[in-house]
Design a protein that fits this description.
By secondary structure, the protein is mainly alpha-helical. It has helices at 23-45, 49-56, 60-72, 78-94, 98-115, 118-134, 138-154, 160-176, 180-198, 204-218, 222-240, 246-260, 264-282, 287-302, 306-324. TPR repeats lie at residues 206-239, 248-281.
């Protein structure tokens, strides 16, 4: 659950009116990224031919047909019933039927509790929590992340990765609740587990350092935040290489931090790095490049280069028009 500083329009309401016009796009992009991450979580736990069929199928009608077939299956045991329901839940998420997906996941929990299938129960609780998190139902998310953590810790064969995931997810919930001290507590506990089990060269550390950097920024600990962003960048670069797509997100986060501090020289350095990386990885017509151009537009606004800012925002609009063939917003008035 990565915290992307550049994707939160609410943190930038102090900027001129033009940024508010971009809010719908930021929300659209954030929804897509969280949805993809959740699907990846489910895919990692439940793998089957039917699961792959849903993942590889882009036709909503065929997804619906497969879900109907699953519902019609009879005379299967509890574990098979759980897998069937999870695949249905997976399809519901693909169709953006989040309320139905939550209802399906609750059915899975009841089966697990009734039949005392503890190992699947903890994972089901985690996935339900993540569904609630995606929908902004943070108190429900917190409740089920806590239950998943508690039950995972009780398992004989504890998986430290799952414990670390639960702790990190609770950190993300508290971050959204603006309780940054509690968020820091959970992120640091997750960090310690990974350090103890894997040492300094584990990719999970990059996400945790990135999240902690955002927390420290919100707590006003700017130098600590910069140091943590740099740790995240260095780990990802060492393990996955400088050309990995994740690098552009980290560059952008650090650039936005410098931007918030009015350190324009360093902000431009890191935002340019992010832009060039995204062009190389995704091409010039991509959501990622559009985000970078938006951040650079904010930079130019803060530098009072208003004509350049307007040019960058208009480039952003044109990219989204080409991607979605829709006008999400229009900029009809020059900045003045």
């Amino acid at each position: 659950m990565q915290c992307l500083l550049s994707e939160n329009p609410q943190e930038r309401l102090q900027y001129p009116k033009i940024l508010k016009q971009l809010e719908q796009i930021f929300k659209q992009n954030s929804l897509q990224k969280t949805r993809n991450l959740s699907l990846k979580q489910i895919n990692n736990f439940f793998s089957s031919d039917q699961n792959n069929a849903i993942e590889n199928e882009n036709n909503d009608k065929k997804i619906t047909e497969l879900m109907t077939k699953l519902r019609d299956q009879k005379n299967i045991n509890s574990v098979e019933q759980i897998k069937k329901l999870q695949l249905i839940c997976y399809g519901q998420k693909k169709l953006f039927q989040f309320k139905k997906a939550i209802e399906t996941q609750l059915k899975i929990l009841k089966i697990c509790e009734k039949n005392q299938i503890t190992d699947i129960l903890t994972e089901a609780q985690y996935l339900l929590a993540y569904l609630y998190y995606e929908q902004g139902q943070l108190n429900d998310a917190k409740q089920y992340f806590e239950l998943s953590l508690e039950n995972t810790q009780k398992l004989k064969n504890q998986k430290y990765e799952k414990i670390a995931d639960c702790l990190s997810s609770l950190g993300s919930v508290y971050k959204e609740l603006q309780d940054f001290n509690k968020a820091k507590f959970y992120y640091e506990n997750s960090l310690q587990i990974i350090l103890d089990k894997c040492g300094q060269n584990d990719l999970q550390l990059s996400d945790i350092y990135n999240n902690l950097a955002v927390i420290q920024m919100n707590l006003g600990q700017i130098q600590e935040s910069i140091d943590l962003f740099n740790k995240s960048i260095n780990i990802t670069k060492k393990i996955k290489g400088e050309d990995d797509p994740q690098m552009s997100l980290l560059y952008s986060n650090l650039g936005c931090l410098y931007l918030d501090q009015d350190n324009f020289e360093m902000a431009e350095l890191w935002l340019d790095k992010a832009l060039q990386q995204n062009i190389k990885t995704f091409g010039e017509i991509s959501v990622q490049v559009s985000d970078c151009l938006t951040n650079k537009g904010v930079l130019q606004m803060k530098k009072q280069n208003l004509q350049e800012a307007e040019t960058l925002f208009l480039k952003t609009e044109k990219i989204y028009e080409k991607i979605y063939s829709l006008d999400f917003w229009q900029i009809n008035q020059k900045i003045n």
